[in-house]
Amino acid sequence: MRRSTEWMISACYITSVLFGVTSLCYVEDTGEVYTKSMVTIYSALANIGMLVLVPHFLRFDYYSSSLPVQINLLIFVVQGFISLMAVVINWSKRRVFVKTLNDLSSTRLQFMHRWPLSEKIKQKYDKTLRRKLFFGFMIMVGIMLSSIEYVQLELKLKSFYMIAAAIVVGNIVNMVMLNYFLCITNLNVILWAINEELEKILETVYQLWNLRTIGHIGPGTLITQCCKLSDDLDELALTQHRLHLLGNRINRMYNIQTACVLVMVYLNNVLAFYMCYPTKQKTQILEEYSSWAKAIMPIVMMLHYIDLALFIKGMTNFEESIMATGKLLRERQLFYPALDTRLEES
């Protein structure tokens, strides 16, 4: 993994702690997750500080006749709801988070000790993380810059600290989703490696059959090789089963936040579609904002959709990798004759 990618992961973890999204610590070398009193206290204080903003939501103009204002208001309220849900989930499911992440780290280390990752998988893993983290941080910066005037106008906040806190609430969603993406990608990379090892085993099976057919190896050597391949297949199957269960647990931990993100995506699509057409309402709303704010909004929207596409790709990779394993076996089993009973059962 490139040094810059490691820095991005560290930056993601530090930002998550600063925002109060996570109250866990981890050992970088082993990936072990644990709790620490100081981090727990800070996270609790950060979460309490976030709750102070809730009364300010009453300042919104809930009866506005402007569609863009109503949609923006609803998006901000959903962001606030996700932030509150993140607080509740982080504390109510804290033990589940620790156990799940430690189980994932343990499974990952055991697999990589037996089957080190190939350069192809390492490059794919590094590229996947770099792209998502880069655009994730870019969209966070964009939201911070574009939210300054919106928070001042809609929430009527004047204090620098209150404005900063409101902007942080708007970015909690992105931090939660970045943490989810890191978890699921660390799981997906092992699934990619399992499929790669399975392809090697199936290729070896084909080669063994050819060598046996032309008489280059005897029955004893064939059975020995088949037993070794059978052991490897059993171990890969057990690892994949563990990862499948872990993936389901990770998805359950983030299911509410993901559902809220999908709601926000729908609202953003409606807003983007509406803002494409010149209307009197649109002109009146834009007049309230400065030139730099109007210039940065389209860029933020473009980054948002790129980031969303990368997020969805990482999320769907989990099921796709599981299905790819079955596809490999179904396609190859028609071409390979039975070599050994034990290998055939595996």
TrEMBL record:
Q: Which gene encodes it?
A: 106082536
An annotated GO BP: signal transduction
- The organism's taxonomic lineage, starting at the top: Eukaryota, Metazoa, Ecdysozoa, Arthropoda, Hexapoda
Q: Which UniProt keywords apply?
A: Cell membrane, Membrane, Receptor, Transducer, Transmembrane, Transmembrane helix
Q: How does it sit in the membrane?
A: Multi-pass membrane protein
Q: Has keyword Membrane?
A: yes
Transmembrane helix as a keyword of this entry, yes or no, is: yes
Family, according to the entry, reads as follows: Belongs to the insect chemoreceptor superfamily. Gustatory receptor (GR) family.
Predominant place of localization: membrane
Sorted alphabetically, the Gene Ontology cellular component annotations on this record are: plasma membrane
The UniProt transmembrane annotation reads 6-27, 39-58, 70-91, 133-153, 159-182, 254-275, 295-312
- Protein name (database record): Gustatory receptor
Q: Please provide an example of a Pfam family that matches this protein in its UniProt record.
A: 7tm_7
| Compartments, as annotated in UniProt | Cell membrane
